[in-house]
Write a structure and sequence with these properties.
546 residues, alpha/beta, Urease, subunit C, domain 1, TIM Barrel, Diaminopimelate Epimerase, Chain A, domain 1, 3 domains, eight-stranded parallel β-sheet, six-stranded mixed β-sheet, 19 helices, 23% strand
């Protein structure tokens, strides 16, 4: 080969390599002319980002990012709007949130006449012996302020009716449903559950906590297609409110199967940590054996955006009236152990076991007694296993801690997962929550705080009222910057995703949202009304407002 041909070949190879190198740095999409709050303290505000293959290729000024534009790059002018990382909802119920639409929707504000009217509409076209499942009722809106099956029986003597109570911890069943479940005046209360009785000793139809499983297990399971439709609708609805990642608090095997299938088909639009319910069939809607099998076989459900090394355990119940089942410390500062959903030994052993298996546990704990027991369980696991795994366990809802317990979270590696729905649910039945959620105290103690919607109790997974509420919560308020970090990067840290999610930084997944207002330029009272204009998940727009 002569020198000319050699030099021509070398030049050609060099040109090819340079072209390839440039192409590798060309962005798929550029968002520019924005007010981007990154939640990265090193670079808190920028103008533009470049995205390639679902990750942030560059983060900086318009000029910085312009260098990554190519002939096929899509350039979006954000026109000065605020951009921030996608929200992490630390507490959702993707299937339960859709049951109103799948079964029978009864507005929570309904009186008895309105309940019957809605149930009759739902009964049209059904056989008399076909179950009617409905959400939701409030017992205080019944005559004399007490729910009773007799009001439902009069209209539905032959049809089994099962209604979930507005706290979603309890239920009301009519006589036909009780009969199918084999419940009568002689049926004993199950562990951590109660069958309410009237003055004659007959069941009223109201079932508290784990007693709901006595009836709900008789309801035919949802078809897989319904589960698939429901979870996808919930994920897409979350996108509308800026949610790009979440923790599902009560996942079932059927849900995981359908989410995995959706993800493998490229249809799943969020990153999900799925907490498998353990120990509470009333919540999981499957037997204890099925729950245990799901935990053991959890890896078989994993996919690119579905993570399954997570478990959910209930320590106490609901603080909502009229049937509050939360566990507060008594007047002597002791835990009324008879009210706990699990014994201390059961809880300590379970947490120690799951921690050793590399599983993060979310413990439902509302009252001061329950939060203390949750911390004790984490302490037992740390003593048995050490803390080398880096797993931080959630104390879900975290309404109240004693001053001494506030100081324990950071030391034990516990997460205060807050879901302050009180700012959207107002009224006499939530008056006992006024002093709940110690944001500032926990922050000052170094605790990792996350934010959840507890969507199913709320009508929609909207975290912006909670963001505004955190900034305006009296002595327990935090700054807006801290509230945003709690709702983004802290969520990623909690589930072990901080290396690739939670903030807008080069190399991380391109999860971000464009808002209709700059949260830092408006009165605190206006934060709750924030609308999401676009939601970008791993570089693709999964929601764009009309």
């Amino acid at each position: 080969m002569n020198k000319y041909r050699m030099s021509t070949l070398a030049a050609s190879v060099l040109l090819t390599l340079c072209t390839a190198a440039h192409a590798a740095q060309t962005a798929d999409t550029i968002y520019r002319n924005a007010r981007i709050y990154t939640v990265n303290p090193v670079q808190p505000w920028v103008e533009a980002v470049a995205i390639r293959n679902g990750r942030f290729l560059a983060v900086g000024s318009n000029a910085d990012v312009e260098a990554y534009a190519g002939p096929d790059t899509k350039v979006v002018d954000v026109a000065g709007r605020m951009v921030m990382p996608g929200l992490h909802d630390a507490h959702q119920h993707l299937l339960k949130a859709q049951l109103r639409n799948i079964y029978c929707n009864v507005p929570t504000s309904s009186n008895v006449e309105q309940i019957i009217e809605n149930l009759k509409k739902c009964a049209k076209g059904k056989a008399k012996d076909e179950w009617i499942v409905a959400d939701a009722y409030r017992g205080d809106l019944f005559p004399d302020g007490k729910a009773h099956r007799k009001y439902i029986d009069a209209a539905f003597p032959d049809t089994p009716i099962y209604m979930r109570e507005w706290s979603y911890h309890h239920a009301l069943a009519n006589s036909r449903a009780l009969e199918l479940a084999g419940i009568d005046r002689n049926t004993p209360d199950p562990v951590s559950g109660r069958i309410l009785k009237d003055e004659k000793g007959e069941p009223t139809g109201e079932l508290l906590s784990k007693a709901t499983w006595l009836v709900s297990q008789k309801i035919p399971p949802l078809p897989d297609a319904k589960v698939r439709e429901a979870v996808l609708r919930s994920a897409q609805q979350g996108n509308q409110f800026g949610i790009t990642s979440a923790q599902e608090a009560t996942v079932t095997p059927a849900m995981m199967r359908e989410i995995k299938s959706l993800d493998e088909n490229g249809e799943w639009p969020i990153r999900l940590a799925a907490h498998i319910v353990w120990g509470n069939s009333a919540s999981s809607m499957v037997s204890m054996e099925d729950m245990e099998a799901a935990v053991v076989n959890r890896s078989s459900y994993r996919s690119a955006h579905l993570f399954t090394d997570y478990v959910k355990i209930y320590i106490d119940g609901s603080p909502l009236q009229p049937h509050a089942t939360d566990v507060q410390l008594d007047e002597h500062g002791d835990v009324p152990v008879e009210r706990l959903y699990e014994t201390r030994d059961t809880l300590y052993n379970a947490l120690t076991r799951f921690d050793k298996m590399g599983i993060k546990v979310k413990m439902h704990a509302v009252g001061t007694g329950a939060t203390q027991v949750a911390l004790d369980a984490i302490e037992a696991a740390r003593k048995a296993n050490g803390n080398s795994s880096g797993i931080v366990h959630d104390i879900s809802h975290s309404l109240r801690y004693t001053p001494a317990d506030v100081q324990r979270l950071a030391k034990l590696g516990a997460v205060a997962e807050m879901s302050p729905a009180i700012w959207q649910i107002k009224g006499p039945l939530t008056q006992n929550l006024k002093d709940a959620w110690q944001f500032k105290s926990l922050r000052d103690a170094g605790a990792l705080i996350t934010l959840g919607s507890d969507w199913v109790v709320l009508p929609e997974p909207n975290l912006f009222p909670a963001l505004g509420g955190m900034v305006d919560h009296g002595e327990e308020s935090v700054t807006l910057a801290e509230a945003i970090q709690i709702a983004t990067l802290n969520g990623a840290r909690s589930v072990g995703w901080a290396a690739f999610a939670g903030s807008i930084e080069t190399g991380k997944f391109a999860d971000m949202i464009i808002l209709d207002r700059n949260l830092f330029d408006i009165p605190t009272a206006d934060i709750a009304g924030t609308k999401v204009l676009k939601t970008i998940f791993e570089g693709r727009e999964v929601y764009s407002a009309p």
